[in-house]
Amino acid sequence: MEIISELGVVLEQREHAYRAESDALYMAWQYDQTPEAEQAWRDKVAEIKQRYPKPA
Predict the structure, then answer these.
(1) In this predicted model, what pLDDT tens digit does every residue of 14-56 receive, in sequence order?
(2) 8, 14, 16, 20: CA torsion to nearest 10
(3) Which of 3, 6, 15, 17 qualifies as a cystine partner to 48, CB 3.0-4.6 A?
(4) What's the whole-model pTM score?
(5) Is residue 18 a contact partner of residue 45, using CB atoms and an 8 Å limit?
(6) What are the structural domain ranges in the chain?
(7) CB-neighbour burial class of residue 28 (10 A; exposed 0-12, middle 13-18, buried 19+)
């Protein structure tokens, strides 16, 4: 039961971070369609996932 609760917290943290940090980068990539913009967005998503790892 505790893992489910921890997972919920992590998913909420990720969602908040995605909205605050990566959503704008995603929109910039959609507008620019450049590999650099795509990589910036993907790097930020990976950083957020590393910051808030799912419980084992």
Answers:
(1) 999 999 999 999 999 999 999 999 999 999 999 999 999 998 8
(2) 180
(3) 17
(4) 0.87
(5) yes
(6) 23-56
(7) middle
